[in-house]
Amino acid sequence: MTAIEIFALIVLILLFALTYWAGYRGGLIDGRIEGIDEGKAIQQSDDSETIRNLHLSLDQAQGRWMQLYSHYERALAASKLGEQERQTLLAIAEQLRIAAETFAAFRTGKKLERDTLSLRDQALAMATLLVPAAQEDAA
């Protein structure tokens, strides 16, 4: 081989090695970029899952809050019952007692008498529940 051929072979080997090294480095860089993009996509999907779970938890909490708020409103309305309602319940109970005595005079009125006495007991129980509320308002 002549000196020019040896020099050309060395240049070709160096060009081949330089090309191989550039391709290898380019592949590493592309792989690294692809890995970073994939990692970001995984993290984003994890974050979106977390956000979806938090939205579900928020919806459940809002539903529970609405339920508790409706209980609060009913309790507030019930707590506003006072002496006037208690007197009304006592009057209803007295009228039911009279009706029960009237039905007791009839032979066929036993069921009506029982129903009337049951309603009277319920009205008296409600009136009894209103007594502490009226006493607390006075204090």
Topology:
Blueprint lengths: L2 H77 L3 H23 L4 H29 L1
Helix pairs in contact: 2-3
Supply database-style keywords:
single chain, 93% helix, 3 helices, mainly alpha, 139 residues
Question: How many E strands?
Answer: 0
What overall form do the CA principal axes indicate? rod-shaped
What is the N-to-C succession of helices and strands? HHH
Question: What structural class should be given to the helix and strand makeup?
Answer: mainly alpha
| Span of the ends, CA to CA | 121 Å
Instruction: Give the uncertain stretches in residue-range form.
Output: none
- Helicity range of the residues? over 70%
Instruction: Estimate the mean pLDDT confidence.
Output: 82
Question: Can you tell me about this structure?
Answer:
Among the domains are: 44-80; 81-139. The radius of gyration is 44 Å and the shape is rod-shaped. The protein has helices at residues 3-79, 83-105, 110-138. The protein has three helices and no strands. It is an all-alpha fold and 139 residues long. The chain is 93% helix and 0% strand. The mean pLDDT is 82.
